[in-house]
């Protein structure tokens, strides 16, 4: 019985956010990209969990944290089928699906060095048109270069805290 | 009852490894550094979980995966108090504590460019002496430079699969 209680304590959150139906294997990338991994709050993460709807999925539960618009968009790019539930007093008070916008602004870099979004003199914010949702295909509105999900380079704020640094050794 | 079963399914693993008593906030770094994050198997991760022994801790459970020596050493550097349990048929068949070795070979880079471990002509494997365990303090045996945990640069194999790339935008 004691073990059971401990399990429930880990799994249930009293107030916060549940991100469900994340594409299998993307939960850790989402935590990194959204900066949620730096939270000091309780998080429970399931990776490659068996799912009825899809073959497998990831799930993230975070205590006391609600997502902002940027984080919702970042999730929609990585997992267009994800759902977000807001929890209060252990109950779901709101459930919504993430929505991939028709154009993605600022969140992604265009790696084409001659693209005007990379101009040093007059830098402008990047903007990509979503051509296809799944599998994702987006196009830079300036230079018209097309990107698949695995080719995307995300912009990211400098992390407050850098725990460890990894470098690829050749 | 259905919910309860689902929870248990997520939490319990039939065969695999439980890494417990990870220093709070280090689970995701451990998954990244050890390459375990690329596993296609079921993983459950608790971050900032309340703990009796310490104030809070992280925990990782991975189905069907057993750690190798390198992974155990990487964990010992990031979380010297971590314990590793091997699971078979839902039962713990072996439990061990990670052991920080007195010298750490190859896993860490010396960032001192004039250190002979960085010599282009005659590159030699890095080797660090552990001066203090917690908080960690290590010293390069060649150039004698001293590093704290947050200053360490880990070597890492090129990841098989790169899901997304992040670049810091200035």
Largest sheet of chain A: 5 strands, antiparallel
So what's the oligomer here? homodimer
The secondary-structure class of chain A comes to: alpha+beta
Lateral arrangement of strands in the main beta sheet of chain A? 2-3-1-4-5
β-strand amount of chain A: 35-45%
Radius of gyration of chain A: 18 Å
First and last CA, distance of chain A: 51 Å
Estimated helix fraction of chain A: 10-25%
**What is the general shape of chain A?**
elongated
- Averaging pLDDT over every residue of chain A, what do you get? 86
Helix count from the secondary structure assignment of chain A: 3
**Which regions of chain A contain 5 or more consecutive residues with pLDDT less than 50?**
1-10
Number of separate strands of chain A: 12
Most extensive contact: A-B, 45 and 45 residues
Order of helices and strands of chain A: HEHEEHEEEEEEEEE
Structure description:
Two copies of one chain form a homodimer. Chain A is an alpha+beta fold and about 170 residues long. Chain A has helices at about 1-10, 25-35, 70-80; strands at about 15-25, 45-50, 55-65, 85-90, 90-95, 105, 110, 125-130, 135-140, 145-150, 155, 165-170. Chain A has a five-stranded antiparallel sheet, with no helix packed on it. A four-stranded antiparallel sheet of chain A has the order 6-8-9-10, with no helix packed on it. In chain A, β8 and β9 form a beta hairpin. In chain A, α2 packs antiparallel against α3. Chain A is elongated. The model of chain A is unreliable at about 1-10 (pLDDT under 50).
